[in-house]
Specification:
This protein is α/β, with parallel strands linked by helices. It folds into two domains: 121 residues, no CATH class; 123 residues, Rossmann fold (3-Layer(aba) Sandwich), CATH 3.40.50. Helix content is 60%, strand content 10%. The protein has a five-stranded mixed beta sheet with strand order 2-3-1-4-5, with helices on both faces. Strand 4, helix 7 and strand 5 form a beta-alpha-beta unit. Keywords: Membrane, Transmembrane, Transmembrane helix. This is DUF116 domain-containing protein.
């Protein structure tokens, strides 16, 4: 339990510490320049701009932390936070994580957990049927004679893999479900359907890339289980998917 807790908070801790270090370095440089030579006009302009950038970074990060517990109402502000999260704060966490010898898998998982908190807080109870459940093709049994492409309706419900359970959930909630064989197809499915919410199942690497590429959409990430290794007969708990769907479709 303790290990799982530290895994969840790793991303926000890394971002917070990286911002703190950037701020300290900035002030040390400014103070050093001032004591040695004083600040020229262009120096004042440059340091003022850098100071404003740091203030924006810290202010936006505080707002992102708040958004994990309090709903942000303006849609443009949600999109701004999402863009900053995937394009600024995640790269910061990766760089600082490498400096601290942190495993990339745990940083990605922590980033996904953090993003899920924001998505649930801001989009829970939307009562929208325009939800897309995006599944990886590796959930399908390798022995299955039917190749499911895009549409889960093609599943014959033999019970040999988790696809049948996912198909049942699709019927129960009357939501769109698609099976993607790769990132390009997943992007096409998202662009074609324009969902209000995406529940995506995949490994941590693919989910992280998907969340970053689809930052305009709220993506709730569900990590699959890989008992036989990556990208081969993976599994996912129907209870976890049911819990995720119920959060948004009631």
């Amino acid at each position: 339990m303790r290990k799982e807790y530290f895994s969840i908070i790793k991303f926000p801790v890394l971002v917070s510490f990286s911002l703190l270090i950037i701020t300290l370095i900035f002030f040390f440089i400014v103070l050093g320049s001032y004591h040695r030579l004083g600040l020229s006009v262009w120096g004042n302009v440059l340091y003022t701009i850098l100071f404003m950038v740091i203030v924006i970074l810290i202010g936006t990060w505080i707002l992102a932390l708040v958004s994990t517990h309090k709903k942000i109402k303006p849609l443009w502000l949600r999109h701004y936070l999402s863009w900053m999260l995937v394009n600024i704060y995640y790269p910061l966490a990766r760089v600082f994580g490498r400096i601290c010898f942190q495993k990339m898998d745990t940083i990605q998982e922590s980033f996904l957990y953090f993003n899920n908190e924001i998505v649930v807080t801001n989009y829970q109870g939307m009562h929208s049927s325009n939800l897309l459940l995006l599944l990886p093709h590796c959930l399908q049994s390798s022995n299955c004679k039917i190749r499911i492409n895009n549409n889960i309706v093609e599943c014959q419900e033999c019970g040999g893999c988790d696809m049948a359970k996912m198909k049942a959930l699709t019927k129960d909630y009357q939501i769109k479900t698609a099976v993607a064989s790769g990132g390009s197809l997943a992007r096409k499915l998202v662009n074609d359907t324009h969902p209000d919410i995406i529940i995506a199942v995949a490994c941590n690497r693919d989910l992280t890339e998907g969340v970053r590429e689809s930052w305009r959409y709220p993506v709730y990430a569900v990590l699959n289980e890989r008992p036989k290794g990556p990208c081969f007969e993976t599994t996912v708990s129907p209870a976890v998917i049911d819990f995720a769907i119920h959060k948004f479709v009631q």
